Model the fold of this input.
Amino acid sequence: MAKEVTNREDNYSQWYNNLVVKADLAEQSAVRGCMVIKPYGYAIWEKMHEQLDKMFKETGHVNAYFPLFIPKSFLSKEAEHVEGFAKECAVVTHHRLKVNPEGNGVIVDPDAKLEEELIVRPTSETIIWNTYKNWIKSWRDLPILCNQWANVVRWEMRTRLFLRTAEFLWQEGHTAHATKEEAIAEAEKMVEVYAKFAREYMAMPVVVGHKSAAERFAGALDTYCIEAMMQDGKALQAGTSHFLGQNFAKAFEVQFANKEGKLEYVWATSWGVSTRLMGALIMSHSDNNGLVLPPKLAPIQVVMVPIFKTEEEHNAILDRFDTIKKELESKGISVKVDDRDNLRPGFKFAEWELKGVPVRLAMGGRDLENGTIELARRDTMTKDNLPQEGVAQKIVALMDEIQDNIYKKAVDFRSAMTYKVDTWEEFKQKIEEGGFLLCHWDGTTETEEKIKEETKATIRCIPIDSFVCEEEGKCIYSGKPSHRRVIFARAY
Amino acid sequence: MAKEVTNREDNYSQWYNNLVVKADLAEQSAVRGCMVIKPYGYAIWEKMHEQLDKMFKETGHVNAYFPLFIPKSFLSKEAEHVEGFAKECAVVTHHRLKVNPEGNGVIVDPDAKLEEELIVRPTSETIIWNTYKNWIKSWRDLPILCNQWANVVRWEMRTRLFLRTAEFLWQEGHTAHATKEEAIAEAEKMVEVYAKFAREYMAMPVVVGHKSAAERFAGALDTYCIEAMMQDGKALQAGTSHFLGQNFAKAFEVQFANKEGKLEYVWATSWGVSTRLMGALIMSHSDNNGLVLPPKLAPIQVVMVPIFKTEEEHNAILDRFDTIKKELESKGISVKVDDRDNLRPGFKFAEWELKGVPVRLAMGGRDLENGTIELARRDTMTKDNLPQEGVAQKIVALMDEIQDNIYKKAVDFRSAMTYKVDTWEEFKQKIEEGGFLLCHWDGTTETEEKIKEETKATIRCIPIDSFVCEEEGKCIYSGKPSHRRVIFARAY
Done:
């Protein structure tokens, strides 16, 4: 099975596509650019969803649901916003089909044209701020801390499973505040929630930073992001949190009476992560044998495979498995016994490696006699023969060890692929090899665009809290003075 | 607050609309027929979602996600299906907007017309069976037991919050089986899951039955349903489970090799419940003071209101509340202390009654001295003065008592409003008063349609397992022989 996956070194992009399909995570659908998220892939997304939702609620947020459709006129109300989304959106123009009078099938009924076209939401700022208008009268109504789990559509021309699809699943938080300071603090808090989730659950190191003006969300005054490095050295933006200022409040006339009774415009944030995180997860840890899942997000944490010659042996092994399984489950570990009768153990091993299950247990006739069991780790691909006695307890500890090891490996990789670069010649050479280039930049969009044109590299972020970057220097491109380094990379 | 809700007796429909809005459950959006589900309403839906999802997983199902869009041609592949959904669907025809060259705002870009129009899914049988085609080769690939949580759109002309909206949230299970018997067993199993959920969690009695041919899902051979009675005597279909035969397998050419290696068409079911359940919940239990929520679905199960004259009293009460709150939370009960400083206790009482919180605790100066606390039940609107000591333990038991009492009340109401009716004269009179009419019917669609024309009553279901209905008789309308009674009612 794993043999069907292209080698990572030969063609990274094909390796990724292969893996997504072969590991049963997702596939292309009959609708251009839209994917089917298969049960195994969806189970990982459910774990992400569950943990993120918990973290949002712990930080005081509640969920709500807003309409899928946005009236066309709403999009136009915030100038930069419409500029950012109008070119790639699905437009609903009619509300009925009818039987084709001239043949087979159905056609759009021309009598059912909508008065105003509806846009399938690419993001929900406009419909939500139009709603908040009615929810907010006084400072007592603030803050509003809402999140929604939803599907959104952006008509991307080049799509890739999870990384860039026409429809994707995400969560979008939309908050309303009485002061600028509170809104900025919220945007910062949420990017930190994302960073914590990425590091502790996805085992994926990320840099927290600001986007440059050119890379900001359409309609934001400031965009915070988490940036991760994939195994090919390319950057992937894994989550963003926007300080929207009063832009949407002004576009939708949302004012509140402050404690002195004076009307003020409301301050806003929005923040989101999407099924793109699935792509980030895959490309952070996986190898030529398939997925490598961090235990905290693995739908199956331990798989057990019996190896037997006789029915008697088979039954005896299943009995032992059952005991260990119950003990593991009582400790909160998810276990699958793979007792399929038409496949050989070796095939099963390869399949569960492909699917990234962190720990595999196998038991054969000799193990039965000796009271032992074979334990294989997916992250290191190492095997160990252990006493059955106490193996469940060992596995509990091993889950943390694997989680930490996967994270450490990713951190080490990123460190090895992060360079301080101080000359334009070196920049042009290094960028071909991939990685994060820490460089001085003069702060102008003009320079940023020229660098992008010449090298396809973009400013991934202006890191926050990184002492490495805080120093005086000269712009790598223009030679003008700079007070800090920023991260350049090619990106997904 | 509660005063603003219309009396149920004066105008049931307006009472319902008032309640949904005043209790902060949902509101109309700027998009025709689409609602905003507000945080309090969404919190109830989340509890429904969580419990149903648990029950689906316990019965062997997994979640997946399929595209929002369905190619127009897919809908036409199953003849009855397209007939059922073509007249009310949102059609995407373009994928881009552009700046209006003749004025403000944006217009649909005529150059971005789709080759084939896409329908926003009204239900997903077609896109899913087109996908299953690639998943199913042999009997070993069966059964497939998938569910998806999603939004769907049906362009209804007359909409009502939760009951009938253009967009709604739901889950749709889609299963594939090797045999007819297995598919029928699945459809039956899932309607029983729905019935159990309605009874045990929503505290809502339901009748399980078959739909008549005329009321079946478009494309099904048999539709099972749960039917509930609202407080105005009208019926509400709360969930359906369909045996689809081989219709979709044939439409999308989905065959499997059986154990003998012969190709057979796959058997299908689909089943769903939606945010309509929110409407059913509201109309099953609520009263003129507002919502009445069964404890198992209440986002807040206990609310605590301090009543004080001095800051010292205030602090002492909050201290006691904190102790009780911690004890309740340790027992899995959700608690809110309402310490808002700008509202009087009486106002708070009315607000939490409106929001249907099952138990309210209040404490004043005298309670502090006496070591007592006031406990008010939302379902009975009774109050009791209790010792603070042991009150948490009492509340745990009370949660079950309230859950049972709400259910019993609804069962009693339904019993009182269910009649065996044997003459057409009585039928016409009784149907005006509301309720379930148990009548003989000759089994023809013709009779069913005439009864509907004359009285607006429909066959809600042909009950399963009801000994009351199993008897010989004559059709209420045609006088022809009948072997069992069915349920007639006017319905939402």
Remarks:
- Chain A has a mean pLDDT of 96.
- Residues 214 and 445 of chain A are 6 Å apart (CA to CA).
